[in-house]
Amino acid sequence: MQIYLPIAEMSVNVFLILGLGSGVGFMSGLFGVGGGFLMTPLLIFLGIPPAVSVGTEAAQIVASSVSGVLAHWRRGNVDIKMGLILTVGGFIGSFGGVELFKWLRQAGQIDLVIALCYVVFLGIVGGLMFIESVQSLFKKPKSEAEMKAAKVAGWKEKLPFQVHFARSDLHCSVILPLALGLLVGVLAAIMGVGGGFIMVPAMIYILGMPTTVVVGTSLFQIIFVTANSTFLHATRNHTVDVVLALLLLLGGVIGAQIGAKMSVRLKGEQLRVLLAVIVLGVCIKLGIDLVSVPGDLFTLGAGGKH
Amino acid sequence: MKRLILSLALALGLVPPALMFGRVPPAMAAEPLVADLSKHLVAITTGFAGTDVLLFGAVEGDGEVVVVVRGPNREEMVRRKDKQAGIWINSGAAHIRNAPSFYAVASTKPIDKLAPTPVLERHQIGLDHLDLEIDSTDAAADPGQYRDAVIRLKQKKGLYGTETLPVSLLSHRLFRTDLHFPANVPVGTYLVEVYLIHDGEVVSAQTTPLIISKIGIGADVYDFANQQAVAYGILAIVLAASAGWLAAIAFKK
């Protein structure tokens, strides 16, 4: 059954999109990640224009983060103060990111920049995750993370505007979460992701937040930052397709619930190795596409709308 | 909806073809060529997956029938990739100012056997004879490459015909052909030009407009997204957030 997407201006198979939504939803339920880093490249691969993929995926992440944060909220695992400061940084970042996106799109380099961001950030995060989880599969000690935290503690205390975060039981300069929020905000707007895969490790290793509040706080700020980039993509670029977003949502919701139930039966380390392999797989695929000779050296440019 | 009414008026032939087509010989008592479409409006609805439009008509006298379907011109941007520092980067670009957004030719005979090149070029019959204005800023590739590229890329999207489609001619009088429009067909006012060619000359021609327009929910969503972007953006967020919230409640147990 075909359905016409009014903004993407093409028709797609309903069941394909529902399947894609539930597949990625399943993964995000299983691993506790947003899944944007899988969904956006897959949508582009299906032939949805990259700009529409990124804009629409931002709307879908709003939904999955709202859905995900509620459980953490009930358990009190959201550091609201930290979340709000990250959101302020994220807002500024997503404004900059969407403007950058618009500019790159006109310059014809948006596809390249999206692909490069994916290769670099998925490579770093996937690589670190892989090494760490393989180590923890074979070895017991977990001192490495503590050592890293201790190493950065020195310069962190010298920064001005130190604030106490009661929920995280943490003293830290406002500059750190603001800068982190800003960086992730830019990336979220350009890559069509929530940025949890960068935010979560950064919160643990750079901010030194306790792991119990990390996921809830990350989801909390992702809601606002992706809501802002959805709004900006809709108003500045006209690239948010609500029909596509609703289809992805429908599949995603069901998939995520099944995934979350499955994850209880698997061990944490095994899950992380698996996730690292998937992240690295996406990274390698996009990397190969960048260096291998394209099927056609010429492309019809984007930005020719209307 | 005003746009639609205007489009329909155009489709129903309120604009005389002669206005659009200066070279038509003056109307005679017996029209040498009459043609019409099975429908003058292609509605892109939510379930749209491409459509066929039947073109039919009759000719008086000898000759071959050629049909050209042309979508509204738009400016296209073609970019060329080059390897820089190991990766393939868009390095050159050209604007093509007057590329038809859709182009297909149907004919009773291969077109190059019908008329000499100047005649085909004058009427822009056939992809080889399209008058494309290529504005290239790329010194490393010649405009011809960009011309080939835009045609090839449009063909890959199914928007330019890869071959001349057949027109069936019944007892040298009645003709018909099926025009196919794929799901990704651009919207706008199309012109379906029918030529009667005899002895290498166009002896008669007729132009019929065909409107391709988004209708229904899809069209409303598109208009809303473009005309009231702020409200659309807010609605998209509210929709997404409430869907997520509903999902969490529904699966809470």
From TrEMBL, chain A:
GO annotations of cellular component type: plasma membrane
Protein topology in the membrane: Multi-pass membrane protein
Main subcellular location of this protein, as a coarse class: membrane
The entry's keywords: Cell membrane, Membrane, Transmembrane, Transmembrane helix
Family annotation (InterPro entries): TM_pro_TauE-like, TSUP/Inactive_protease-like
Compartments in which it is found: Cell membrane; Membrane
Highest rank taxon of the organism: Bacteria
Keyword Cytoplasm: no
Chain ranges passing through the membrane: 12-38, 83-104, 110-131, 174-198, 204-227, 239-259, 271-288
Protein family: Belongs to the 4-toluene sulfonate uptake permease (TSUP) (TC 2.A.102) family.
Protein name: Probable membrane transporter protein
The organism of origin for this protein: Magnetospirillum moscoviense
TrEMBL record, chain B:
Keyword entries, A-Z: Membrane, Signal, Transmembrane, Transmembrane helix
Transmembrane as UniProt keyword: yes
Signal peptide (residue range): 1-29
One Pfam match: Alph_Pro_TM
Protein name (record): TIGR02186 family protein
InterPro entries the record matches: CHP02186-rel_TM
Segments traversing the membrane: 229-251
Record lineage: Bacteria, Pseudomonadati, Pseudomonadota, Alphaproteobacteria, Rhodospirillales
Presence of the UniProt keyword Signal in the record: yes
